[in-house]
Amino acid sequence: MKIAVFGGSFDPPHLGHxxxxxxxxxxxxxxxxxxxxxxxxxxGKYVSxxxxxxxxxxxxxxxxxxxxxxTHELENEDTSYTYQTLLELKKQFPDHIFTFVMxxxxxxxxxxxxxxxxxxxxxxxxxxxxxxxxxSPLQPEMSVIKNMEPIEVSSTQIKKLLSNGQxxxxxxxxxxxxxxxxxxxxxNV
Length: 189
Known about the structure:
This protein is of the alpha/beta class. Helix content is 32%, strand content 16%.
């Protein structure tokens, strides 16, 4: 099977994330999309509690075929590194072909990623376009996802709206908006 491993903090997950996954599936770029939420961000970026992000991810993909959540990094107490996680997945599922999926916002700092050269040597990477970010510099083994509208929404944008008391119902599924409200997430970010 062709597995697209979609990594990120998903803090919160939003309709842009869902759009990327649906595009990969409907254009036969992947048989399954596995969302891979990070536990500890390698660059020290703050992320909300695992349980909150996991619950919201489940709400994002509820009822969606061929979309799953890989909790490998959440189960690791140490800082997670994409290359190590992909090697672990490849060892655990040797019959699958894994491709990593990331947004264009990661391109500028990609060469700072742990073992980035080995990551490029051992795995393909798909890059999805994002509003406000160039699709460069592309490294070998990176491909831009074709025929895809740039993703406009970001988790940072959602947090900013929420901290200003503005609605985000147009950017996240209803269940996620209700969950955020219930637990008052991002109200003082």
